[in-house]
Amino acid sequence: MPDTTDRLALPVILADQAQKHVTHNDALIRLDALVHLAVHARDLTEPPADPLAGDRYIVSSSASGDWIGQGGNVAVWQDGAWMFLEPRAGWRAWCSSEGRLLLHDGAGWTSAVPGAEEFSSGTLSRLGVNTAADDNNRLAVKTSAVLISHDDVSGSGNGSVLGTFNKEGAGKDAGFNFQSGWSTRALMGLYGDDDFRLKVSPDGATFHDAIAVERTTGRVTFPQTAALEHLAAGLFRKADPASVAFTRTGTGTLNMKAGTLVGVAGFVHAFAAPTAVEMPALVPGTDYAIYVCSDGSVKADANFQAPSGHTTADSRKVGGFHYAAGGNAGGYNTGGDGTPQINPYSLWDLKWRPACADPRGMALVAGQFWCDIYLTGTNVDVDGSSRAGATIATGSVPPKVPGMFGGDGVATYGSLTWYEATELLSSVGKRLLGYGDFSAAAFGTLEAASRGSDPVTTGLATTNVGASNHDRKFTSKWGVTQATGCLWVWGNAFGGPYANNWGDNTEGRGQTFSQPNAVRLGGSWSNTGYSGSRTAYWFSAPSASIEIVGARGRADHMREA
């Protein structure tokens, strides 16, 4: 039989042992020392000078004097001498000087649970919940769910709950790793730089950027597919597809309507509320484009490439308007006025516009078709077919041949027949007005009246004031200027008396047989009693070229949902 017990090394009473009480008492003394073990300290390098009976200490590894060589053992002051107990793995001891529970792991004493030292500065070196923490994973949690809620207990909470991941520098990582079977399948955060990324992996070794958000602009890209600007390319959506995207709020002010979505340079800008269009100094007789810029602003500019301070890379043209030199007719037979203002019928957007390449200088008539605001000038390749202050093309001031029909920028037609007027407007994607079109477009003009002198140029008295009436009196409800009583315009209709024979009247491009006449519409500056919105003259051959006849274009209305 052994002399001591297996675990606590307590002496046992042997058979026929004399003075059995000595052995028994020794065992009780050891039990008294070990059961509910509590020590005063574990950092003393030498025994205390005046210990009390039963005082216990864990001997420091550097102890001297009576404790030398007893490092790690439990020293008990018993009967005027030190008794040493050698700990084993699993022993626990409360250290009163540290306020902590110690655990012997077989090699030395460590903290069994966080104690006063760990909590004194509000920090813990590591924490494991249901699993062990280590130097890399200083916080380790094994659980089926994690709940983090705002502080509504201590009274210091503000109703928010925030998590912060701070890395040392741009080249380091800060983010979430999502794993399957301890193999990473997705990463989300700042990896390798300061742009936000979402990465995925098939094997935990190769990673693909699925989404990247550029930190300085917020630009979102999809590296494995395409940039958002490609996915949203052409995005232009209105809350009401049955109307233009802008509302006139004053003579020189506009709003972008609420509910409009516009994709610009990789961004999608949503206008939840009406947004004012930033206006430059408006010049009468000028067309302006409306842009949405990458910073979310909405700007108007006379430059049809990009607004001032921006480029085509950070802005998008989404619409436009015409700033007229005068107001539109208020109703039947009233004519317009001389107050410069935005023509409300000239507003257009990407999905509400004329069906021609250039929407400038046009007004929507009765919601049905677009009509040129101005009479056709002499240089459509440069000015388009509707521009204020342009020299009016007539039979006596013929226009240049457009490049589309063989023009070289210098040569003129030499006349302005119906054929040439048609060709001229065709070069810009338009055609002449039909009789019904003209009657609607000229509604509101001063009826049965004329200007009294040759207008020469387009617009409101840009060259001379009419001898009988000012040009503004011949502005229609839709803002069509010099609509009647200024110049006849060729119409896209035929009728009236005609000769029953072949006619060599097409300028060498074939002949016509029994062709009716081409209509002239509106009346000229000298036709005082005849001019008006329904005036039609059916007695001119299409081959005629007359100084009092010009042209005006129209285009279909393009409306997209």
UniProtKB/TrEMBL annotation:
Pfam families: DUF2793, mtd_2nd
Domain of life: Bacteria
SUPFAM superfamilies per the UniProt record, alphabetical: Bacteriophage trimeric proteins domain (SSF141658), C-type lectin-like (SSF56436)
Annotated Major tropism determinant second domain residues: 245-349
Descriptive protein name: DUF2793 domain-containing protein
Lineage: Bacteria, Pseudomonadati, Pseudomonadota, Alphaproteobacteria, Hyphomicrobiales
